[in-house]
Amino acid sequence: MTAILRHPRPGFIWDWWAVDAQGFLVQFSGGPAPEHLLAQVDRVDAAAAWAEENRPAWFNDGPAPLHIFSCNSELPTYTRNGVPNFPLRLSEAPAAVADVAALVELRRAVGDTWTVYLDEGWV
Questions:
Q1: Is 69 helix (H, G, I), strand (E, B) or coil?
Q2: In sequence order, which residues have a C-beta less than 8 Å from that of residue 75 and are 6 or more positions away?
Q3: What gap in Å lies between CA 41 and CA 44, rounded to an integer?
Q4: Quick check: helix, strand or coil at residue 96?
């Protein structure tokens, strides 16, 4: 069964998190998310606000300790922004982010994947 993917605010950047099949934290920015996450949009927004204030490196061009993917359109195609030297596990993530990341479990590990097509069996 294919997951329904939607963007809560088309045309605006929206950051959300997931956990991959190996337990690593993955940040997605700018595109659609699994529809069930949209019911939690206020929680996700609060986590993003917390992360922007407390983990600004996650939103800058510099190296970040987590897997970060971004999307330029409403299509569920995300491109990696870099490979972390020591990726952050969900169990090591700040609670404000870990709580919402646990809502989306990816079926695959991002590993060294450079493009994630969410509509092709990832969620």
A1: strand
A2: 31, 32
A3: 5
A4: helix
* C-alpha–C-alpha distance, residues 37 and 15, integer Å: 12
Identify the CA nearest to 69 among candidates 4, 12, 20, 5.
20
CA 112 – CA 4 distance, rounded (Å): 25
DSSP class of residue 84 equals -
- Report the chain's terminal Cα–Cα distance, integer Å: 10
Confidence grade of residue 17 (pLDDT, cut at 50, 70, 90): very high
Cα 16 from chain centre: 4
pLDDT digits (tens, 9 = 90+) for 32-57: 999 999 899 999 999 999 999 999 98
pTM: 0.92
Sole residue written with tokens 């609060």 = 46
The radius of gyration of the chain's CA atoms, rounded to the nearest angstrom, is 13
Distance separating alpha carbons of residues 97 and 77, to the nearest angstrom? 22
